[in-house]
Amino acid sequence: MNSSGPKPSGRRSGSRTSRTPTARSARRHAKSTHTVPQPPPERRRLRRQAQASRIVIPSSLTILAICAGLTAMRAATNGDINAAMGLVVAAAFLDGIDGRVARMMGATSRIGAEIDSLADAINFGVVPAMIIYFHLLDGQDLGWVLALVYCCAVVLRLARFNTLLDDDEAPAYTRDFFVGVPAPAAAIVVLLPIGLEQQFGEGWWTSLPVVGGWLVVVAFLAVSRIPTSSLKTVSIPARAVAGLLVLVAAAAALLVTFPYVLMMIMIAGYALHIPFAWRARRWVASRPEHWDDKPAVRRAQRRALRTSSPNGRRRRPVLNSLGRLGLNRPTGPAPVVAAPGTGTTETATTGTATTGTATTGTTTVGPRPTESEPE
């Protein structure tokens, strides 16, 4: 028999087709349908060209540094040692400005950083070692081994430097110091025997033990964890500008007349700054409250500490021999002893009397405490 009522629908009222979409699905749908406005093709092309042109300039400086270093090695093999030394200095100068030019132009890139690292390995690792070998140690097997030691040390130092750049958890003050002697400074320092030979002639400073030992010492300084100051932290006060200009004029005069004397002075000054850099890093590492301060602020804090305490050190409590042994006199109240037959009391240690109703000096006046009152 047919039913007179309405037939039930084949779909339930709570089916997926009739369900209201959730907020998450609505966002996903809007993201899939929303189109980001793109700049016109001509504008995108001009933007890519401008970015490529900015990258070319600092990378070209790095390539020029590589060419200067390799040409220095060629000049050393041909016997023109003065040209070789000048080209190494030029390579160090170009290496120092390429990164700054890239940051000023907003053209820092990963490929630029990789090219700069490879240039440092060539210019400050391979080239100085080969110049020393060809000019002072040519034909000596031990000299070749020591030159390889220096090259490998500089490469390891650069690899460690690249890994430290990616450490985002390091305190802020670590960026103000180098870990070990940087590669450009190591290249200039390791060439000191050639500077001595050019200025004073041959002597004990050009012998294999001295030159080889110097190569090992500089290689150790490059891979060591001895802190050295970064030039980025150097600030020149206004009152020192005049004196600095005089020093620049004197350096320019030495560069023209006695360049190797200037080289020796600079190396000696750099070596003398290392103990001060080590002391400054140790000071800031022991004071976490100054980790995020700028170098000028930290120097002001150190000067304030030097004026407030001797040697700029934290004052420690002075302990005598009895204090170190724990034999200091007790500081609590002295025991009270009653004098026989009188109403006075005496302390056992000092012999001061307690009587009457007035207090004078060390004499304490008042009624004797009872059992219910604390002494």
TL;DR?
This protein has twelve helices and five strands. The chain is mainly α.
Quote the CATH topology of the domain at 49-232 and 247-309: Four Helix Bundle (Hemerythrin (Met), subunit A)
CATH superfamily of the domain at 49-232 and 247-309: CDP-alcohol phosphotransferase transmembrane (TM) domain
Oligomer: single chain
Shape: globular
Structural class: mainly alpha
User: Unreliable stretches, pLDDT < 50, 5 or more residues?
Assistant: 8-18, 315-329, 344-375
How many angstroms does the end-to-end distance come to?
A: 110 Å
How many strands, which pairing sense, and closed or not: the largest β-sheet? Answer: 3 strands, antiparallel
In words, what does this structure look like?
The protein has 12 helices and 5 strands. A hairpin with a 5-residue loop joins strand 4 and strand 5 (353-354). It has a domain at 49-232 and 247-309: Four Helix Bundle (Hemerythrin (Met), subunit A). It has helices spanning 23-33, 41-77, 81-105, 110-136, 141-165, 183-190, 192-200, 208-223, 241-257, 259-285, 295-308, 321-324, and strands at 177-179, 227-229, 336-338, 345-347, 353-354. The chain has 375 residues and is mainly alpha-helical.
